[in-house]
Amino acid sequence: MSFSSDEVNFLVYRYLQESGFLHSAYMFGIESHISQSNINGALVPPAALLSIIQKGLQYTEAEISVGEDGTETKIVEKLSLIDAVMPEVVANRQNQLNKTKATLAETTETNGEQTTEAASSTGQEKTDGAIKDDPDTDNFIEISQNKATILRGHESEVFICAWNPMRDLLASGSGDSTARIWDMSDNASSSNQLVLRHCIKQGGAEVPSNKDVTSLDWNCDGTFLATGSYDGYARIWTTEGRLANTLGQHKGPIFALKWNKKGNFILSAGVDKTTIIWNAVTGESHQQFSFHNAPALDVDWQTNTSFASCSTDQQIHVCKLGADKPIKTFIGHLNEVNAIKWDPQGQLLASCSDDMTLKIWSMNFDSYVHDLQAHSKEIYTIKWSPTGPGTANPNMNLILASASFDSTVRLWDVERGTSIHTLTKHTEPVYSVAFSPDGKYLASGSFDKCVHIWSTQTGALVHSYRGTGGIFEVCWNSKGCKVGASASDGSVFVLDLRKL
Q1: CA 473 to chain centre
Q2: Would you give the distance in Å from CA 493 to the centre of its chain?
Q3: Cβ pair 164, 218 in contact under 8 A
Q4: Per-residue model confidence as pLDDT tens digits over 83-102
Q5: pTM
Q6: Other C-beta atoms within 10 Å of 197: how many?
Q7: What digits encode the pLDDT tens for the residues 348-389?
Q8: Strand partners, 432
Q9: Cα torsion for 92, 96, 98, 100, to the nearest 10°?
């Protein structure tokens, strides 16, 4: 069996995308000329690279365990990826298995009853272990497949989804170069979807961009949807699916974009190291900020005219419309900063990084207020609860949620700088967390294909649903009764908690 370089490059490219390293995937795709290959990405299943590697390992293990006489000895210790490519390790392992097989044969001949008894005892121990009660999962409800509404139509991974703030319209963005608007109101048909095709002008005609839609955001009154794409353009759409404006000044993929609360400006961040404030009415660039020296990964508004941005350059800048330099720069992370979020009052800024830390910043200090270290792998995203002073839930404490590649979610008391709950039921990297509008629940989505819903007060698991693909994004509707999620297999689904 042989592989072309195009095939290997495409599988690596897809692996980087699925692992959440979108900017790395983009750079790798450019350097390896992915766009020039004739591979139909829609036909390649999720986690294809990992799947073929795992099958290769299983083949190598099987090859070792079968002796010259055709008999097989079970491998007790699995091969690691590095072991499998080291000839001397493979040879040593085979010798050990041959010796083990010979010893087992001797034991069986001299004391068959003892061998049988040991096997029986081992089997009983496994059975006992499987039925032990787990106090953390005693009361949660597992949502069956028939209780979820599955939305199909996308032809590639669905990286992001977001509910309209006024109506039950769910928007989704995919690697198939489309965004879609699904009408999930109670009296609508689940098949009712609007397809927003992201096209570029080529030879005087509109052709599909063939680039991922990586970000989307509704304006505050739910009348317009903004999308950002790998083709370097931001676009504004109506709720009827009409393209209202195309925003084209970035020189490369857009990684994030956000409306301000007033709805007159859109903020975007791109691989070209810049952030741009756009006039949402005219579609023109109002101001471009070129303060980062590496790709800008995330942005978040503090007020209607000031915002923060973060980058792979490990820095965070706070900028203001009309100012020709940052009004504040925060330095302290030791690796790229993946996400930033202002608290509901715009007083505290939270950031998370590949350096495995969360940091809390204030405009009143040059250094961080808190350096929260508890995760054991990269922290992918963070969210503030809609609680505390100045929110619709003023009598509940403000908390921060963090999602990590260590498969855990943590809830933090930011005032004390301590971890309140560690949520540990996921088994793969967690890509997304979202608070319910009342702040009482948290939804989390992981590449283990599961969406979990937790009580923020007790940390207990309340509901759990297993989908058909790794979960990139979870979100709550404005009424707090529906959870939407988007997945790596092209599916989007909605859990209606009223029906459980």
Answers
A1: 6
A2: 16
A3: yes
A4: 665 666 666 666 666 665 55
A5: 0.76
A6: 15
A7: 999 999 999 999 999 999 999 999 999 999 999 999 999 999
A8: 445
A9: -170
Residue whose structure tokens are 């210790």: 77
